[in-house]
């Protein structure tokens, strides 16, 4: 059994029950079918990034809430042991480095976008802070396109759809800190 799939299943069920929602009510709020939610909770389905974002937005939780682990005083993240969330085309991978914690109000990801590929992200809450670690990406948000190269950083409010594009010949890697002010 995949550790990430197990964490997603456990956390989704815990969050849904904490909110006092039936599967039907959760399906209505998220736009994800009751059967898909049940399959995710039973570890019978490995949801895409888009599906997880729909659920997170509908339940008004952070994306990384699905990947939460136990709190520790020191947390070392060994990248090669992480399991990414992958988009439907397998061109975009997101690794949760530090999951959301209500007292800290942020989460940090390492995102990897294949050469010559594109990722469409739905609007969501919070503020994003991007730092390009390798390659280059174009980010289109609020009708404006920003080109970011290695070492460049950008802050934006993701309350509108936004698109990440890698027009380069190599994979682009960027860190994404999402801050939730409320």
Automatic annotation (TrEMBL):
Q: Organism source for this protein? A: Sporolactobacillus spathodeae
What is the top-level taxon of the source organism?
Answer: Bacteria
Lineage of the native species? Bacteria, Bacillati, Bacillota, Bacilli, Bacillales
What SUPFAM superfamilies has UniProt attached to this entry? lambda repressor-like DNA-binding domains (SSF47413), RmlC-like cupins (SSF51182)
**For the HTH cro/C1-type domain, which residue ranges apply?**
12-66
DNA-binding as a keyword? yes
UniProt keywords, alphabetically: DNA-binding, Transcription, Transcription regulation
Q: Which Pfam families match?
A: Cupin_2 (PF07883), HTH_3 (PF01381)
Which PANTHER family does this UniProt record tie to the protein?
HTH-TYPE TRANSCRIPTIONAL REGULATOR, HTH-TYPE TRANSCRIPTIONAL REGULATOR SUTR
Q: What is this protein called?
A: Transcriptional regulator with XRE-family HTH domain
């Amino acid at each position: 059994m995949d550790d990430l799939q197990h964490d997603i299943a456990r956390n989704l069920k815990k969050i849904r029950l904490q909110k006092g929602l039936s599967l039907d009510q959760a399906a209505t709020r998220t736009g994800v079918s009751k059967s898909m939610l049940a399959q995710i909770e039973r570890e019978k389905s490995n949801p895409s990034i888009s599906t997880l974002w729909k659920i997170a937005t509908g339940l008004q939780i952070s994306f990384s809430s699905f990947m939460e682990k136990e709190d520790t005083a020191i947390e070392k993240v060994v990248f090669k042991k992480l399991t990414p969330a992958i988009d439907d085309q397998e061109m975009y991978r997101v690794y949760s480095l530090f999951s959301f914690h209500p007292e800290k109000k942020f989460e940090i990801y390492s995102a990897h976008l294949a050469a010559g590929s594109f990722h469409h992200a739905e609007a969501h809450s919070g503020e994003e802070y991007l730092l390009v670690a390798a390659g280059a990406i174009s980010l289109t948000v609020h009708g404006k396109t920003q080109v970011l190269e290695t070492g460049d950083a950008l802050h934006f409010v993701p309350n509108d759809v936004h698109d990440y594009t890698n027009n380069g010949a190599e994979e682009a890697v960027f860190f994404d800190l999402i801050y939730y002010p409320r």
